[in-house]
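Checklist before submission:
- one chain only
- standard amino acids only
- sequence pasted in full

Submission:
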Amino acid sequence: MTDEKTATRSKHDRLIDVANDVPPASTVVVHPCDVSSLQGVIEARDAGLVLPILVGPESKIRDVATHAGIDLTGVEIVNVPHSDAAAAKAVELIHAGRGELLMKGSLHTDELMRACTASATGLRTGRRISHVFIMDVPGHSETLFITDAAINIFPDLDTKRDIVQNAIDLCHALRIEAPRVAILSAVETVTTKIPSTVEAAALCKMAERGQITGGLLDGPLAFDNAIDPEAARIKGIGGAIAGHAQVLVVPDLESGNMLAKNLSFMAKADAAGIVLGARVPIILTSRADSVRTRLASAAVGSILAAARRTSAPLPKV
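Returned file contents:
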């Protein structure tokens, strides 16, 4: 591959290349009963990223495949009557060691996550579950990781600690040794009038004391100060992180969701996504996702699965 061709490939394309260096991950796919979800997992299989087990109404899955011209030869299908049963069965298969990843099909995210977070039968660990968007933003030199914009609505300080640690651990799996983490707020100074600034300062102190490990933290930082060196310079904010952040930790789900969608629709960013902190990584796909975004999400999951094969389970925190 020439340098010129490499330069024109997207960040997500290069992520998929990295995933092709590891074996495909066994993946339990929950209720893939529409064309986009079924086609997405078969494309990921054909790209060498996953080995799927489809869980859902078999007749419905095969009807979708027939009408869309999707070849299911050699793909295992576990027959259950409906989406709720599919979510429960998928969790059961994970507990039985059948899958290294869980992938959402055409059921609602809430329905899947309810099965995953059930206190007695779910996939909880000592960590809080959180979501990370992996953003390929045109014109920005590095991949941006935005968390949490999909799971925790108004996280408290302890939850934010786990959100940060989950994101750092993801970066380590993606071969980013010391990710630069910006704790976002509306301003860069600490004020009791904006509680997220106080929590940002507390998270940075927690990192100093070893309660968060493996990353470089700074905050509070406004979005511009976090990702633009000139904005940080004008405000007089020094250090290794301001203007050069890779991980953006948002105050709450609403702000994170708006930030991620703003980048997607205004800056034409591709937003892959992964749920962390559960017994296995969970791939949440959307019908609006492009093929490359779906493959990038599967690639992230495959890389995480490979990293977990050689590491201990997530520790209690």
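Reviewer check: The mean pLDDT is 92.
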